[in-house]
Amino acid sequence: MSNVEVERSIEAILMVVDEPVSETVLAQVLEKSVDEITAALEHLVTTYDERGFTLKKINGGWRFYSQAEFSPVVEKFVLDGQQSRLTQAALETLSVIAYRQPVSRARVSAIRGVNVEAVMKTLVTRGLVEESGVEHETGALLYKTTSYFLERLGLNSLEDLPALAPYLPNLDGLDEILDSLTD
């Protein structure tokens, strides 16, 4: 299989995937080395500069995405008048979960200062948050963000979330304050 055939095969596979596909999976399917697949992917990335889409590595795998400059028309097409944006409450709750995970609903409520039960259901329904175990002390369900969350934000991992410290006042002892509120 020539380099062109490898690239065309990768394109054909990536056109039908719902989730990002790793180099390892592509190498297994195409019976090529991971290095050959990586080189082909990197070459393909450079060929889409003047197209309406791009090839990106997100959440540990590769997938086609529309170019950011076309987001208004893509959004209009996908939504077709539907409202799918998250509310401010949902965004705040999602932020708390993303930065404090795994975290219980009670802890999120304590941090936000409001009941988040309905918002949590919305985030779970939309696939942005999922259950991740049980808190040993209280038996409360713990929640974490999903791989879909990373994909939607265009992040490869949670380590890619921006640091919050530069945006916060000096809050030494915040954990102790929060612990005292939930006791």
Specify Rg, calculated over alpha carbons. 20 Å
* CATH architecture descriptor name of the largest domain: Orthogonal Bundle
Query: Percent helix among the residues?
Result: 40-55%
What is the CATH topology of the largest domain? Answer: Arc Repressor Mutant, subunit A
Total beta strand runs:
5
How big a fraction of the residues is strand?
Answer: 5-15%
Q: For the terminal residues, how far apart are their CA atoms?
A: 64 Å
Biggest sheet, open or closed, and with what strands and sense? 3 strands, antiparallel
Overall spatial form: elongated
CATH superfamily of the largest domain: Winged helix-like DNA-binding domain superfamily/Winged helix DNA-binding domain
Report low-confidence residues grouped into runs of 5 or more. none
Helix count, DSSP H or I runs of 4 or more residues: 9
Number of domains: 2
The helix/strand order is HHHEEHHEHHEEHH
CATH class of the largest domain: Mainly Alpha
Instruction: Tell me the structural class.
Output: alpha+beta
Report the mean per-residue pLDDT as an integer.
Answer: 85
Walk across the major sheet and give the strand order. 3-5-4
List the helices and strands and how they pair.
Elements lengths: L2 H12 L8 H8 L3 H14 L5 E6 L2 E6 L4 H9 L8 H13 L2 E2 H8 L4 H9 L3 E6 L6 E5 L1 H7 L20 H9 L1
Antiparallel strand pairs: 1-2, 3-5, 4-5
Characterise this structure.
This protein is of the alpha+beta class and 183 residues long. It folds into two domains: 3-70, Winged helix-like DNA-binding domain superfamily/Winged helix DNA-binding domain (Arc Repressor Mutant, subunit A, Orthogonal Bundle), CATH 1.10.10.10; 88-182, Orthogonal Bundle (Arc Repressor Mutant, subunit A), CATH 1.10.10. The protein has nine helices and five strands. It has helices at residues 3-14, 23-30, 34-47, 71-79, 88-100, 105-112, 117-125, 147-153, 174-182; strands at 53-58, 61-66, 103-104, 129-134, 141-145. The longest helix has 14 residues, at 34-47.
